[in-house]
Write a structure and sequence with these properties.
This protein is an alpha+beta fold. The protein contains 12 helices and 18 strands. The longest helix is centred in the C-terminal third of the chain and has 22 residues.
């Protein structure tokens, strides 16, 4: 049985909730998070407090907000299902810093007919170039876009809205039997620090799902291995009119040469599918000391070791060629969750069956990135990823499908029902 497809009340509730979340400023700050400050911005703390109050008002139990602004709560099992093994749902509260998330003005288009959408700042969403938008037009979907001046924040406020709406539906429909379902809403996922202080001592579930994916049907349980490389070049500064005589070594030139010597065909903009990359993320400094921050991504851990070795080699060669020094520090950010999840195949099988029961065709592909689930899987809680209906993340071109958000909510309800039957594929 499918519960939400024709439920206009729940659909309107979901739309209202998403818009309210999108309008709530919660942008994170990677530089602060890298210093160990989580949440990295005060607005995330404020959002966590307001969201926790909403959960309490809806009937969630044991709602807590940690010192680091992680929300943990649960809905109780219905009568007779107290012994059902619980599972946990996760989404993140922050939005990226590359595009402003302040004063977001969601643009709701009901019964979208496939026309070009003209927004501020000469932003155009053209269904002729965006196949998912074309599909939305053919289905006369309700879509929500930005106004062209900010991002939308559907990553991951669509996930937040889908989780809260589906669990509120279960709370108000006790005839649908289910076990205990936990939620964890985290700060600073976009900075790479979303699981640094997650309150694992509160999580009783042995498996979990992030709701942080994209187009309808995406089911993800494989992601990049991710490292950050910080390369510091040290030169010798001098006045430029005596540079040759004084043996000046320009650290800026070293940093620039290092970036230019990275494999051009292995950049984010020249790779896709299962191809890894080197991504210069930040460069700063002066003649004496300059630093490059580099993101390394690869699905294969052995290939990642080769990438790290190549970075070491290029940095060392550049330093030797210029007569300066180079120091490289590699920091693990997250690992491919595939292997750990393969050790618990039932977690993905439950999800595949939930998609089928929700009349959603599952499409499995590797994530060219990571989620909080990547880190949580490393910690011993296998955590695949569910779609949200969000598209064109991290940009003024971002938009979300209301119908697809509703389908994500339906998948969660079907997961709850399946859990009571031990994930029986024939249920």
């Amino acid at each position: 049985m499918i519960f939400l497809k024709n439920d206009m009340s729940t659909k309107n509730e979901l739309l209202e909730r998403f818009i309210r979340y999108a309008q709530t400023y919660s942008q994170s700050d990677s530089s602060k998070a890298d210093e160990g400050i989580v949440p990295s911005t005060p607005q995330q703390k404020e959002f966590a407090l307001s969201l926790s109050e909403e959960l309490k008002s809806l009937g969630f139990l044991d709602v807590t907000v940690s010192d680091h602004s992680y929300i943990h709560a649960y809905i109780p099992s219905t009568k007779g299902f107290e012994k059902v093994e619980p599972f946990c749902l996760l989404a993140h509260m922050d939005t990226v810093e590359e595009v402003s998330g302040l004063n977001v003005k969601p643009n709701v288009i009901e019964n979208y007919d496939g026309h070009k959408i003209e927004l501020n700042n000469s932003i155009t969403l053209d269904p002729a170039k965006i196949k998912e938008l074309k599909i939305a037009g053919e289905e006369k979907d309700t879509i929500i876009t930005t106004d062209g001046t900010t991002l939308l924040g559907a990553d991951d406020k669509a996930g937040l809205a889908a989780i809260v709406t589906s669990l509120h539906y279960l709370l108000t429909h006790p005839e649908i039997g289910h076990g205990k379902i936990e939620v964890v809403f985290s700060p600073d996922e976009e900075t790479g620090h979303g699981m640094d202080f997650v309150p694992t001592e509160k999580i009783l579930s042995k498996y979990a799902y992030t709701v942080d994916g994209g187009h309808l049907g995406e089911l993800e349980y494989e992601c990049f291995n991710a490292y950050k490389s910080d390369i510091t070049f040290t030169g010798v500064a001098s006045h430029t009119n005596k540079a040759r005589e004084k043996g000046m070594v320009n650290a800026i030139s070293m940093a620039s040469a290092f970036v230019q010597n990275l494999p051009r065909h292995e950049a984010p903009e020249t790779t896709d599918a299962r191809l890894g990359f080197y991504a210069p993320y930040d460069i700063n400094g002066n003649m004496e000391t300059s630093r490059v921050t580099l993101l390394l991504r690869d699905f294969d851990i052995d290939a990642m070791e080769k990438r790290k070795a190549l970075v070491d080699q290029i940095a060392s060669s550049i330093a030797a060629a210029f007569g300066g020094k180079a120091e490289v520090v590699h920091t693990q950010q997250y690992l491919n969750m595939y292997q750990k999840i393969q050790e618990h195949p039932y977690v993905v099988e439950y999800l595949k069956q939930a998609y089928k029961n929700a009349d959603v065709v599952a499409v499995s592909s590797p994530i060219r990135g990571g989620t909080d689930g990547s880190r949580l899987t490393e910690m011993g809680i296998p955590t695949p990823n569910i779609f949200t209906g969000a598209h064109n993340y991290h940009s003024q071109y971002e938009w979300v499908s209301l119908t697809q958000m509703l389908s994500a909510s339906e998948v969660i309800i079907q997961l709850a029902i399946l859990a009571t039957k031990g994930g029986n594929k024939d249920a």
